Amino acid sequence: MAPTLFSHRFDRALRLAAVAHAGVDRKGTELPYIAHPVHVARLLERHGAAEDLILAGLLHDVIEDLAPGDAVARARFRSVFPELADAPEDHEAFAAMLELFIRDEFGAEVLRLVDAVTERKEAGGRPRPWLERKTEQLQHLRHAPSDVVLLKAADTLHNAASVLIDLRETGDQVFDRFSRSREDTLWWYESIAEIVADRLQEAGQPIVGELRAMVSRLVEAASSLKET
Predict the structure, then answer these.
(1) What residues pair up with 73 in beta bridges, in sequence order?
(2) Spatial distance between the Cα atoms of 68 and 117, rounded to a whole number of angstroms
(3) Residue 128 gets which letter from DSSP?
(4) Taking the CB of residue 201, how many other CB atoms lie within 10 A of it?
(5) Which of 11, 18, 63, 116 could bond 148 through an S-S bridge, CB–CB 3.0 to 4.6 Å?
(6) Residue 127 phi/psi, 5° resolution?
C-alpha cells in the first residue's frame, strides 16, 4: 500500500482540521486538539486503512465540533478557504456548505465516513440529552459498514489512551472534565469496545485487541483509584 502521509490530499485535510480546531485544547489539558485527529489518522494508517478512511480520521470532528454560536470559527473557515467565502452565517446552512466542501474537496466517500461518525448534538436548536445521543451512536455502530466501525475504533482507542495517561498523571479528577460521571464514561468506552469486537474480530483486525486492552487498563486504573 502506497504511503498516505505527505500526499496533497492529506495536507489539505490536515489544513482543514487545523482550521476547524484552531485555538482549542483537549479537555483539561494544554495539548492542542489537532493532536487527536492526527493520532486517529496515524492509527488508521498503521492498520492498513485506505487513504479515504485516513482522511476521514483527520476530519472526523470537523462538522461535529462546529458550535452554533462560534462565529469566529465560521469566519476563520471563510478567510482560509475561498470556496467558503460566501458561506451563510446561519449555523445549519454553514454546516451544510462545509459538508459540500468536504465532498467536493475529498470525495463523497470521505464525506460518508465523516457523516457516519458525526454526533448530532442538537435538534431543533436545543441540546440533545447525552444518553440519547450515545445510545443512538451505539445502535448505529452495530449496523454500520466495517470501515465506519474501524474509524470509530481508532477514535475511541486514542481517546481511551489519552484518558488513561491523564488518569495516571492527575488522578481521579480527570473525570471532572467530562459532562457525565466516571461510570457513564467507562460504560461508553466499554460499549464501543464490545461492538468493535463483535463487528471486526472475525476479520482479524488487530485494533480489536488493542482497543479491548486499552479500555480494560482504563477501567482497572479507574477502579484502583476509586478503592484508595
Answers:
(1) none
(2) 19
(3) P
(4) 12
(5) 116
(6) -60, 140
Task: Give the type of residue at 219.
Answer: V
Q: Answer whether 113's CB lies under 8 Å from 102's CB.
A: no
Check: pTM over 0.90? Answer yes or no.
yes
- Supply the mean pLDDT for the chain: 92
Q: Which residue has the cell 479507574?
A: 222
CA distances from 184 to 141, 187, 223, 228 (A): 18, 5, 14, 20
Residue 18 CB neighbours (<10 A): 16
Cα separation, 198 vs 143, in Å, equals: 11
Cα gap 64→183, rounded to integer Å: 24
Distance of alpha carbon 172 from alpha carbon 162, whole angstroms? 14
Q: To which H or E segment does residue 31 belong?
A: none
- Which grid coordinates belong to 70? 462560534
Q: Which residues pair with 123 in a beta bridge?
A: 126
Cα→Cα distances 3→37, 50, 54, 95, 203, Å: 18, 10, 11, 31, 23
194 grid coordinates: 464490545
